[in-house]
Amino acid sequence: MAFAKTEPSERADGWEDVGLNWLRVPGGALVVRVLERDGRTLHLEPLRAVTPSPAVAERFGRRLAATHAAGAPAFGVGPDGWRGDGLQGPVDGFIPLRLGPVGSCGEMYASLRVDPLVKRAGRRFSPDERADLARLCDGLRAGEFDTGSPPARIHGDLWSGNLMWTSEGCVLIDPRAHAGHRESDLAALALFGCAHLERIVSPYDETAPLADGWRERVPLMQLHLVLLHVVMVGGGYVAQAARSPADTAEPTRRQLVDAASRRRPGADGITAAVMGSR
């Protein structure tokens, strides 16, 4: 028997439908199949959950790399055939997910993900916290955190609850699919914890090597979903989001200093002096 999922509107129903179809690519991660669409209701194939295993995790890591590699025409665009903004957040409180072609990953992340949610959060952030987040957006737009990765076909909300472990493998459900940075899906898996996460990431990295410093960028790549929780819930997520600029800046600063020391003979003393002045 199919699983019937009723959405609050036909647009929400269509958003999930096109996202699931877009994520389904040859050799990619398994995606729950839509058996029928009836007004505001999606009839999905039934899935039976099983205990997570390392072997299934490793297979999923390789398959997720293939999904991401399917790519998209530009950062920020939605699934093929979708028009306008997407939707994000809980079913009973959707808010817009800004979509549109953007020239760089940093510009997309700042202008379509971070900045709209910071503005929507309003006074949940102090003036100083808003200023720190604004400076982070400036750095994103300036390309300070760009890795050269092309637009990836991402799930967009890949916390562990949207990953079903079945006898066939890990299956993607409930996407907010769009073209973004592939590291954001991996960071989302880590946000609330995921079974056998390293057994997912290692085969992924072997299949499609991640750029240097990806672990240090995890707080940055999680910021979109953390800010969404700030808007929806508040609480401790406010402090977590407010820490993100500092959590992101320090490893990046260290990487720049290390890179300078490698480029300049005899610069080890400069490196030590800069790092020691923190």
Query: What number of domains?
Result: 1
Low-pLDDT runs? 253-278
CATH homologous superfamily descriptor: Aminoglycoside phosphotransferase (APH), C-terminal lobe
Number of helices, counting only DSSP H or I runs of 4 residues or more: 9
Largest sheet: 3 strands, antiparallel
What spatial form do the alpha-carbon principal axes imply?
Answer: globular
Roughly how many Å is the radius of gyration? 20 Å
Head-to-tail CA distance between termini? 61 Å
Count the strands?
Answer: 10
Query: How are helices and strands ordered from N to C?
Result: EHEEEHEEHHEEEEHHHHH
Instruction: Give the amount of beta strand, in percent.
Output: 5-15%
Any descriptors?
disordered C terminus; 278 residues; single chain; three-stranded mixed β-sheet; Aminoglycoside 3'-phosphotransferase, Chain: A, domain 2
Tell me briefly what this model is.
The protein has 278 residues and is an alpha+beta fold. The protein contains nine helices and ten strands. It has a single domain, classed as Alpha-Beta Complex (Aminoglycoside 3'-phosphotransferase, Chain: A, domain 2).
Structure notes:
Strand 3 (34-38) and strand 4 form a beta hairpin. Helix 3 runs parallel beside helix 7 (218-232). This protein has a 3-stranded antiparallel sheet, covered by helices on one side. A 3-stranded mixed sheet has the order 2-9-8. Strands 5-6 form a two-stranded antiparallel ribbon. 49% of the residues lie in helices and 13% in strands. The chain has helices spanning 10-23, 54-69, 105-121, 127-141, 182-191, 197-207, 218-232, 236-263, 268-276; strands at residues 3-6, 30-31, 34-38, 41-44, 86-88, 95-97, 152-154, 163-166, 169-172, 178-180. It starts with a strand and ends with a helix. By secondary structure, the chain is α+β, with helices and mostly antiparallel strands.
